[in-house]
């Protein structure tokens, strides 16, 4: 079995004070992908930076306090790579991948964007550069008899079933037609990846992975499904179980996102 968990921690230092370490100590995953770490390694305490039983790799952003991704693995990775070849995003803290036997696992934090601002332009440039890399990664994996798994916060709700208030968000970043069309390309013939959670839960709304801290969004399950695990075909076929680890109550949340856990044969 290979169990992979992915979660946007909404600031690792803050999450560690709210229950992240307790959650990690009980985590049964072989790999944990983190997004929005928002810290350099030197800013983390030893128990957070190098948790017992894990090999941790980090890709912080050059802009301090922003973005940042990490991958924790039970065994030492065979190789570690930061970025995906796009100069603008090499030190942006948005992509890190590790090689394990037979599989490459990556942690992704795609820009969130904001309509009518430079942030949306950045998001569009990232998507334009990232899809060709995903195609290249899938082809290289297939050529080497390997698989690939891209985990993380993609900041796009793909379908109406992935967003509770989809009608009110049709003009907002994260649910724009062009963003959703881009994700369809990732999951279509061009990209060739599979959204493994949706594949196992094809007919339900959600399961949502992010809820605003405003109002009673979590209590009312007024969420977005923007955290995905996208697998190459051979790996997707071996997906046995996929779930969102939604906290039992608002008070027990240590991030505004919930971990997404997938078990592969």
Task: Chart the SSEs and their pairings.
Elements: E1 2-8, H1 12-18, H2 20-25, E2 31-35, H3 46-49, E3 55-59, E4 69-73, E5 79-82, E6 95-100, E7 103-109, H4 118-143, E8 147-153, H5 177-187, E9 194-195, H6 196-200, E10 227-231, H7 233-236, E11 239-244, E12 260-264
Parallel strand pairs: 1-2, 7-8
Antiparallel strand pairs: 1-12, 2-4, 3-4, 5-6, 6-7, 8-10, 9-10, 11-12
Helix pairs in contact: 4-5
Summarize the structure.
The chain has 265 residues and is α+β, with helices and mostly antiparallel strands. It has helices at residues 12-18, 20-25, 46-49, 118-143, 177-187, 196-200, 233-236; strands spanning 2-8, 31-35, 55-59, 69-73, 79-82, 95-100, 103-109, 147-153, 194-195, 227-231, 239-244, 260-264.
Task: Describe what you observe in this structure.
It is built from seven helices and twelve strands. It is of the alpha+beta class and 265 residues long. The chain has one domain (2-264): Endonuclease/exonuclease/phosphatase (Deoxyribonuclease I, Chain A), CATH 3.60.10.10. The strands form two sheets. A six-stranded mixed sheet has the order 3-4-2-1-12-11. The protein has a six-stranded mixed sheet with strand order 5-6-7-8-10-9. Helix 4 links the parallel strand 7 (103-109) and strand 8 (147-153). It is globular. It starts with a strand and ends with a strand. The model has no long low-confidence stretch (mean pLDDT 97).
Give the quaternary arrangement of the chains.
single chain
How many strand units?
12
CATH architecture: 4-Layer Sandwich
CATH topology: Deoxyribonuclease I, Chain A
Distinct helical segment count: 7
Largest sheet: 6 strands, mixed
CATH class: Alpha Beta
Structural class: alpha+beta
């Amino acid at each position: 079995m290979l169990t992979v968990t992915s979660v946007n921690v909404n600031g690792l230092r803050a999450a560690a004070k709210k229950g992240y370490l307790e959650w990690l100590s009980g985590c049964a995953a072989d790999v944990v992908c983190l997004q929005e770490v928002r810290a350099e390694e030197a800013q983390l305490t030893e128990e957070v930076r190098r948790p017992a039983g894990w090999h941790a790799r980090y890709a912080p952003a050059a802009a301090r306090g922003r973005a940042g991704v990490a991958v924790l693995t039970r065994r030492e990775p065979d190789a570690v790579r930061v970025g995906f070849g796009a100069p603008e995003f090499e030190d942006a803290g948005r992509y890190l991948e590790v090689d394990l036997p037979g599989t490459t696992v990556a942690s992704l934090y795609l820009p969130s964007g904001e309509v009518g601002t430079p942030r949306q332009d950045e998001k569009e440039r990232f998507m334009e550069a990232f899809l060709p890399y995903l195609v290249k990664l899938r082809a290289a994996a297939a050529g080497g008899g390997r698989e690939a798994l891209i985990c993380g916060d993609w900041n796009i709700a793909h379908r109406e079933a992935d967003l509770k208030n989809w009608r009110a968000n049709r003009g907002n970043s994260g649910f724009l037609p062009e963003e959703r069309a881009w994700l369809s390309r990732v999951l279509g013939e061009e990209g060739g990846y599979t959204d493994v959670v949706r594949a196992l839960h094809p007919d339900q709304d959600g399961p949502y992975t992010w809820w605003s801290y405003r109002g009673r969004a979590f209590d009312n399950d007024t969420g977005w499904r923007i955290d995905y695990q996208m697998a190459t075909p051979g790996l997707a076929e071996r997906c046995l179980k996929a779930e969102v680890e939604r906290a039992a109550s608002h008070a027990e949340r240590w991030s505004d996102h919930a971990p997404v856990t997938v078990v592969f044969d």
